[in-house]
Amino acid sequence: xxxxxxxxxxxxxxxxxxxxxxxxxxxxxxxxxxxxxxxxxxxxxxxxxxxxxxxxxxxxxxxxxxxxxxxxxxxxxxxxxxxxxxxxxxxxxxxxxxxxxxxxxxxxxxxxxxxxxxxxxxxxxxxxxxxxxxxxxxxxxxxxxxxxx
Length: 149
Prior knowledge:
Elements: H1 3-10, H2 14-22, E1 30-32, E2 38-40, H3 43-56, H4 61-72, H5 78-111, H6 119-124, H7 128-131, E3 132-134, E4 140-142
Antiparallel strand pairs: 1-2, 3-4
């Protein structure tokens, strides 16, 4: 199959298919004709389908490459895929926790928002609502301005 057919059947742009070949993701399923055209085996479609799905699950091209290397040795890489997906879940959990903390901080700022902050605060800060740190006991203080020498 020529690259245009692979693009049509896989839904990947030709440029992406070329890139994947260049970085070695399509190695066993592509050869060159005497005139230099890329000729793909039909198995490339399954490989591209795996790449598309793995990317949609958050795996990087490096991680996908590591998985494909195992597959190219004739082994099923399911254990490695599971490890990478488990790691991805941990990363996402950590990101969600960080986003929840940020959300709470933003809600706290908005809850204490002052449309007209005191003129004393407004001289030192760009936006006192953002630059004032509030504490759970009700106290607050301004963040220290950055001093340039």
